[in-house]
Every structure is written in structure tokens, then in C-alpha cells.
Fold each of these.
Amino acid sequence: MGPSLRRALLTALIMGVLGAWLGAAPAVSPEDQVHLLAAELRCPVCQNLSVGDSPSEMANQMRELIREKLQQGESPDQIRAYFVSRYGEWILLAPKRQGFNWVAWLLPFGAILVGVGVIGWVVRRGAARSRASRTEALQPLDPQYARRLEAELKEWGR
Amino acid sequence: MATWKKLIVPIAIIPVLLLLAYGFKTNPREVPSPLIGQPAPPFAMHFFDGGTTSLGELHGKPVVVNFWASWCFPACFEEAPALEAAWQAYRERGVMVIGVDIQDREADAKAFIERFKLSFPNGPDLQGKITIDYGVYGVPETFFIGKDGKIHYKHVGALDRKVLRAKIEEML
């Protein structure tokens, strides 16, 4: 078997496996897609509820509009852009990853890093202190006490 | 060192508390509408009295679009007489006032119209499409659409005669 034939067979095998895997991947149903998009939008008449979770009439109407737009062939990005054009970015539960919004995305990770740094510093300082106290404890005895200890040990051993 | 230790907790907590206070105190209805200065979203309506209109038909006229509901008390009750007065005062000068009744029952809406003797056209937004297209958060909200078809101003809450007159005059 020549190297080019082997390469062709390998490619066919990979394509076959990939094709089968993609074919087996569960397809998102239109109703799931409506719910996924609705979950990204803030319900305008609720307190901290998404359009997907709210039972309000307005959220219901918004879900219906999303369903209709998907049926008309609009992409999720187009639908998101439509709601932003009407309500502003406020309608998105997660801010877009751009400009000043990066602060909202990165600040928690920054806070975690600072927290880990502080914990590390405290732990290291504590370890250094305990090392220092151990070293203190191992300092040589006063010669007077050392002599006395030795004498008493001898006496005791007799 | 001791002072630094005392300060670190407030330094860490105060900005978080300020951020939370800002977030919780912000009223979504005060978020500026991205539609100001933009062409008004087109719509067509069937009125309760059987008439119809579309924004396209009204091009070249200043249009006041008021979103209301019969259950919206007291704000919608307060502004209804002011809207009727503005309609009476400015209809001869080509100003159009339209009421869009949202999330309501037809009988209640008709009773509201009757109670305040509203003579400007009012109709329901049954599927909420106009409401969503105008980015409405609640009632009442009023959009002032200029002769050029662009949204000139959005008012959140009950309108009074002074604001109505001032904004209509700006569009004439």
C-alpha cells in the first residue's frame, strides 16, 4: 500500500468518524432555540428575570416574536441585535464583550487573582513566622543550664 | 501597618457596595432609549372604533404615540385628560395623537376611553409587536414623532399639559 493511498484511507476514515459524530450530535430544536435566546434577554417588566423565565404577558409576547423571527429565517445574532436596537444593551443579561464592558467580564477574575495573591502572602508569612519560632526554640542553651542538665541526667542515670 | 490592616476591608468592600447601590437604584425605564433621533418603527393599527391607520400614512405630520392601559392607575388616569386636551388644541394644526392600549381587556379599555371621553384614535396592540418595536418597558410611555418621521422625544410616566404643549410646539 503506497503512502498516498494510506493517506487517502486515513482521511476517509477521519471524515467518516467526524460525519457520524456530527450526525449523531443532538440537533437544537426550534423551541429550544427560542428558549436559549429568550434566556439571554432581560424581561423589561420583571425584577431580575429573563424573558425565558418570566410568566408575564410581555415576556410571552417577546418569546412569540423570537419564534416568528426564527421561522422567518433570522439568525440569533440578528434577533439579539433587534432587541438591542429597541431597548439598548440593557436588554442583554450578559454585556457584550467589547470596550468598557470588558471590565465587567474581567474584574471577577482580577479579584480572584488578587484574593489568591493575598492568601498566598498570608500563608507564606505564617510559615515564615513558625519557622522563625522553631529556630528560636532550637537556640543553644545557656551554658550554666546545660551543665546543670547534664549533671542531673548523669545523676538520674545512675 | 496596623492602619493599613484596618483600611483594607473598607477599601475592598466600599467599591462593591457602591456598585451594587448604583445597579439597584437605576430604574430601567430611565435607561435612555436608543430610538431617539432614529426613524420611528413603522406600524399599522386597527382602532376600537373600527378605523385603521399606519405610520406611513401620517408621514409629514407630528405624531404623539401614547402607550397606556386601563389598569395603569394613577399615571394613565392622570394624563388622559391632558392628551385629549392636546388633541383638541392641535388637531387643526395637523398633529396626530394615537393611543396604543397594551396588555389589556377590550371591555376595560373601552370603558376607560368612555370615562375620559377620549376622541383621538385608540387601538389595541394585541400581540405586543408595536410595544416591543418601540422598546416600551411599561405604561404610560409616550413617543413624539417629528414631521421627518424620526423620534423626537420619549416621555416615561404621566404626561402633563405643559410637557405635551412644549414637545408638540418643538415639532411644529
Amino acid sequence: MKLHSSNAAGRKHKRWRFHGGIHLPEEKDLSNREPVQDAPLPSQLVIPLQQHIGAPARPCVAVGDRVLKGQVIGEPQGYVSAPVHASSSGVVSAIEPRAVAHPSGLQAPCIVIDTDGDDTWAKLPEPILDFKQADAATLRERIRAGGIVGMGGASFPSSVKLNPGADQPIDTLIINGAECEPYITCDDLLMRECAADIVDGIRIMLHVLGAKRCLVGIEDNKPEALLAMQQAVVLRGRESSSSAPIEVVRIPTLYPSGGEKQLIKILTGKEVPSHGIPAQIGIVCQNVGTANAVADAVLRGRPLIERLVTVTGRAVVHPRNYRVRVGAPATGLVERSGGYRGELAKLVVGGPMMGFRVDGDAIPITKAVNCILALSPEESPDPGEPLACIRCGRCAEVCPANLLPQQLYWHARAKDIDKVQDYNLFDCIECGCCAHVCPSHIPLVQYYRYAKTESWAREREKRAAEHARERHAAREARLERMERERKANLRKKKEVIAPKSAAAAGDADPKKAAIEAARKRAAAKKAAAGQVIDSAVARASDAGTASTAEPVADQAGGTPKVQLVASTSPAQPSRTDAPAKRESVREPVSEDQD
Amino acid sequence: MSTGSFVSSPHTARVNRVDWVMLQVCLAMVPGTLALVWYFGWGVLINMALATMFAVSAEALVLTLRGRPVLPAIGDYSAVVTALLFALTVPPTLPWWLTLLGMLFAIVIVKQLYGGIGYNPFNPAMAGYVFLLISYPVAMTSWLPPDVPELLQARDLVTLSFMDSARLIFTGALPPSLTWDAITAATPLDEMRTLIDQGVVIDEIRQSPLWGDFGGRGWEWVGNWFLLGGLFLIWRRVITWHIPVSFFAGLLVMAGLFWFLDPQTHPNPAFHLFSGAAILGAFFIATDPVSACTTRRGQLVYGASIGALVFVIRTWGGYPDAVAFAVLLLNIAAPTIDHYTQPRVFGQRRPAG
């Protein structure tokens, strides 16, 4: 069986290597021997409003409403968002926070539907069969309306990813069929069983992006999937010869070749810039599941309401793949797989390398959940107490981002957030290779997640401080301006008054003399009365400045903000707490210089 | 479901363990150790046993004083590796109390006072060795001759039995009717240095029965057996090739250059390679992960610098062998080298740093 590129007349596609990576026990044959089964329709669906990156959907149904299969029940809010649909017909019984598949273990808003068992379809949008005649915006709108998000795990809204903008022309569409995580086989089975749909989805996305070619990367431990995809490409190629070439590339099995940046490197030799996105180098990467969903949405008008899920691990009786409604509880899938057997060490959502542990299976399947992994104690033994790092460098050897994980660990442990960023913490993809090979069993990924969270928190603080500083500067400028204006006004008034009084003096000399005489009398009286009145006159003559000076003085005694105002004025340096305040403002600036 | 604290991914079984790493290092020392015992007698084994006992006891003592769990730290066998490496580098007749002193210095001061395994900037075994070499130069340079009949006859030397070695180590008493001169001999590096300093040309020096095919008789074979162990370590991926290969490159390039310029006052590069602790040092000592460089390019710089320094100290320095000094000097430079040799991170144009 020859498994190299099919439509390029036997020419083998060049493949590149990324740094590091590890070979893991694949464990794929636990679950990929049986065809996909349809999971039974549960009596209740719990559909989270946020199943994607971006703003959560807003419910557009009320408790008690009857909904139909495929009906929109949550509308997207904003550009980076996605709608959610009822995955079967029934009655909305609650809209409330429920347990969801999330590492935090927190609840999230969900729409609960008591299904009626009829599974009646809502009226679906018209299929767009001749998608080549449709313009990209129409197709993108359909993909958005279908609630399609990246199904490889990140669940970023696909319509956004398919709209890189005119300034980023897309040359290559990369389809991720690598499925490099051990145990998971849902993409494998999808490619085996729905290759034609995937290829249709690819062609639609090629059209939307205007890309010149498509590369499908599949690890060589999935020969059936490779063959099915190659055949589908040839078949579809015959039907329409005008499309951009689609090439199915067999890539070596090496974790994490299914990481977006790693797969792009393997297939094109290009590296996505650090902190950048693939579109910057003319590439868009989508998962095979997403391609399949796109075909469903465009060619059949069906929204994303079901997906393939692998239920596997040695702690379930019958590991296999299911076609599952979004919102169906994982409990039903585990039951369908014969339940647990032996001791369950860990229940994981996703794969063993990057998935997260959940406390129980009472969580709904979402668009992003690809695997429910029940690990036995033998498969996931307790790594024990971590020992000290001996700097052996195995972690650096296997790091696919070519980082120095031991240095990251060192600085993360010391909570030295600057240093840990200097060592490119944010290029870490949390693939877990380093922790897997660490002889000291240090939970390295956990340290990096901690350091990232700390960095974000500090970034927020920094931004808040920056904001406060800007506000302070603006306030200072405003006060200064007001002071200037007030003085200017005063000057003007004086200018207006001075000539008037001069003129008055000229006009009525006798009057002035009378006033002068009265003053003198008064002065004499005053001298008799003593010094008291002197000060009163002085105060009256200074009343103009004193009246505005007073509030400033008041405030100076009040909030620290205004003390800062005082401190910045050279005339009256306030020594109270101004230095400390200044330092806290200065700190972020010095960071920028670093 | 286990009740352990939440630990993030990966959820796989870990594939490496520190104690396995250390045990493989011990295993890799076996061929070289046997060769040393073959040529230099039982003293080597007695020293190894003593050093291990002292090192492990010292580590347990300090950990107890520091209030740290003792068993996990003892169980990583790192103190054993330190002790064995130390015992392989000291003369086979070293008095027991010097071994004790060396191990106390290595484990208590160099390792534990800096925070224990993973935190020591210097290689403990080499620091202990250098400490003794500076403080007790005579005892530390009294090497036995290799047990090669031609050599023993030519120099009128005898070898020591197990009991003789033990008595010498524990009581300092020589076997009856023997003098130090009858049981010790200059090492090839010593002899080479002394004779070159006296103006003897290499061709004449090489006439001596001390010389084998490329290094000192006996010594060269010890080196070969350590080489075998080193290759085992690379095969088992306990170490990578970078430090040993660059070490040899640094040493051979320097030695080759000067040998090429003047072959009568500079021994050939093979002599440097197979004398003293070059091979042991390259595979077992310079590769100590805690005190070495961790970046790949850094390891090349580190290894090559050690190799070059070994040649420099051997040729112009005050000591006949130089591996320990060179390693310690580069230990302190390792963090700086690491800083300037960070790899280019995926997606970045230039390496950071």
C-alpha cells in the first residue's frame, strides 16, 4: 500500500521536522477497532452557552419554550462568538448554571432541554450546493450561523478564522488530521467514515479563503484514514478539476505533531511567528472535524449539533467512538461503553497529555470535547512527590517550542515573572512533553500555567496602574489649565477694572477727594482701634487668591491623589507618601525598558 | 477516584526517574572500575566502599540537621555517584581519613550547604578532590604503578595485596620491608612533565617502560574501559554527546596544534587523551548535569573550554593533571555560558538573550 501523496503523481511531499517531541504509547487501538456508534438520544440535554473562545451566546429562548432540532437557542454576542443550537427537539426546562467540562470545575450558564424523543428538525436554511458561485461572505455567514468552531480543542469560531482580512492573503489551508494525542481516535474514525464530507468542507474553505492549495497532515499510525482521505481527494478531484490542489501528507507519528504551529512547520517548513497567528504567514489551519461541520452547514444547512467523541481508557469496559449530540451528558456515553471497570484513577476530558481532569462524568459534551478518558491506576500512576530538578536537560531536548523548561521552572518557582517571560514563557504550548520525561517528576506544566496566570494578573495590574497614571496626568493637566484660565481671567478683570478706575478718577476729582478724606478718617479710627482691622483689610485685598487656594488645601489634607498634585508642584514639596506613590508608577516604565 | 491533589496534565506515567539515571551512571562505571582494580589493586574498591559510606552518612546527617526528609534524598543515589567518582580519581592508597575529609567537604559544604542536589554550583566530587589535592598534595599524588610485569621489573616495583592495601589505608603502615619508593611510581603525566621540564625530548621519554601504545602503560586501558561506559551512557540517553565530544575536541585541537608545532616538547594528542582523567572526566565528570551547561550550544562551549583548559594546565600549570580544576572553573562559568547560548525559540528570529 503506497501512502504518499496521491494527486501529485507520486511525488512525495517534503516534510520538515520540529525540535523535540516524544514517542508515546499510542493506545489508539483500544478504541479504533469498532465503527462509530450513534449515542442514544438522552432525555435531557444541557447545552452550555459558551462552547467557544470569545463572548458567550445570549439565550434567545425562555423556560417552557418548545424548541426544534437545529433551532438557534443562543445568539452570538459580538464578532468573536458563536451561536448554539438545540441538538434535539423538546422543551426548555431551565436556563441556569450547570457543571460543564472545564478545568476550573466551576459551573457555567446552560440551556437545559427536556427532549421529546421526536427529534423533529427545525426549518433549516437552504443548502448552498453550488458553493463556488457563492461569495465568501455568504459562506462565512452560513458557517457562523451554523455555530461552527474549531473542533480540535481550541474551539475558536471558524468564521473568524476564515476571515483573515485583505491584508493577510492566504496561500495554504492546512487541515489537521494528525491526532497526535494518545488514546483519541475520533478524528481517525471521522476520516475513515466521512472522508468525502471532509474533502467537501476543505473545498468550501479553500473557496472562502481563496487559498492556492490545501495540505492535509495525517500521522502515519492511521493508515486507514490516510487511504480514505486520499481516495476521497481523488474522487472529488475527478468531479471538479478546477479546484486548488488538495494533498494528503503522511507525517511521522511524533507527539505533538498535531499542534497547530508544529503541523505547519512539518508541512511547510514555515514557523508561525512567536506571539503571532498562522495567517501572518499566509496559512490557515483547521481540524478535520471542522471541515466536516463546514460541509454539513453549507451543503445541508445543518448547524453543528453533534460530534464524534472517543470514550476510552482501560477503566471503561468497551472503549469506542460515538456520534454524540452536543449537550448530551458524558454519563450516558460511559454507560453505553459498559461503565467503569476496576479502579478509576483519573477521568480526563481530552487526551492524556493535554486534557484536564474532571471530578465526574456528569458533564455535557460540547463542541470542543473530543475524548472522555477513563484512566486506570496503571495508565496514570501517581508520579509521587517531585524531587529537586537535577538540570538534566531532558525537558529541553523534547520541547517542541525549543524552550529551556528547566530555566522556566526555576524562575516560575522563584515567582520571578520577569525572568520567566525572558525565557519565553508565552511560547510554551503546554504540550506536557517536558513533564512526561522529567526524571524528578516535577509538574512542570502546572508551574508554567501558574506563571502565565501570574503574568496575566500582573499585566492587568500594570494596565490598571498605567490607566491610573494617565488619569492622574490628565487631572494634573486639567487643574493646571484651570489655574491658568483662572489667572488669565483675573488678569483680564484687573485690566478691565484698572482703566475704569483711572477714568473715574479723572472724571470726578471731588468725589475722589471725598473718598480719600473718608479713608483717612477711617485710617485714623483704625489706628486707634489697634492692629485688628489691619489684618482684615489685608485679607480683603487678597480675597481673590485665597478663595481658590482653600479647596486645594482642603483636598491636600484629604485623598492621596491630591497629595500627589501637591508633590508635583515645586513650590510645596509634600514628603508624606509621594515617593512611594511615585515608585509604584515608575515600576512598569522600567519594565518597558527591559 | 484518587484523592490526590489536583495536578495538571500530562496524566501519563512518567518515563524517567532520578534514581534510575544515577544507577545507570554507576553501572557505566563498572568496566573502568574493574580495569582500575586490575591495574592498581584492591585499594580502589576499598576507597569506593569507604567513600560511599562516608558520603551517604554525611548526606543523611546534614539532611537531618536541615530538617529535610532523608530517605528520598538518599534514595536518589546522587551521593553514591559523587562518592564513586571521587574514589576513582584519588590514589588507591589514600588514608581513610582523607577520604572522610574529602567526602565531608564534597557533601556537606559543596552540595548540602548550597541547598542539596540540583542547587550546587560545583561538581562535589571534583571540589572534594581539589580540596584534598591542595591541602594534602603528597598523599594525593602518591600513585601506585600499574600492574604490568615489564614495568614492575624494569623499575623494581611491587604490587600490594588486598591486606596490604587495607592496612595502608586504615593504619598508614607499609608492608614490612617495603618503602614508599618500592610501591609508588610517577603517573605518566607526572613523568612527562618532569622530564620535559628537565629538557628531555619526547623521543627519549618514550623509551621508558612506562609507555604503552598511545598513553601510559596500563592507564591507557583504564581510559578505554571508561570510554565504553561513556558510550553506554550516551546510548541510554543519560548524557548526550555534546560535552564529551567537545571536551575531546578542545583537548585534541590544543594538543594537536602544539604537537604539530613542536613534537619533541609536546606529547602527541593521543597521550593527552589516554592519560590522567581525560576520558573519565569527559563522560562522567564534566557531564554532571547540575553543575554543567544545559543549553546545547552552551554544552559545546563548556566541553571545549574544559578540554582546552586541561591542556593548558597540564602543559603550563602547576599540576600534572587538570580535569578537576578545569571542570570547577567552567562550573562557575556555566550560568553565564547558558545565558548567552539560549536556543532560538520556535517562531523567533533570533535567540533571546
